[in-house]
Amino acid sequence: MEKFNREQDGYNKQEVNKFIDDVIVQTEAVINRVKTQQEEIKSLKKELEHYKKIEETLKSALLNAEKASNDIKKNAVEESRIIVMDAKRNASQIVNDALMRAEKIEVRADTLERNIIVFKRKLKLIVDQQLSVIEDIDELDLKN
Fold first, then answer.
1. What is the pTM of this model?
2. Share of the chain above pLDDT 90, in %
């Protein structure tokens, strides 16, 4: 509590007036703060309503997504059943084709293997002949 100095006619008028001015300033500050807080509360209420609407929209979207997900699952199961049936029908043809290809590849591999053996023999013969020529050249150089 504020204490005022006493003068002849009562309290010091300047001190009292200063106190009243301070009280007025503080009261105005409190009133402004209350107004600001009320505006903020109003804004927050609007924002809360906005988020509640968003929440409802999200709930609805989630329900729709669940329904769509269930429909997609059902369709996927049916499609997979059809694919498996088709695969079973085509499996024997695929196996036969694969066996025929494997047989052709095996024949080609055997042919390539034989060709490599023949090529190695011919190459060895050529190398041996070339070595013989080199040895003959060395002997000719030595005799001269």
1. 0.40
2. 67
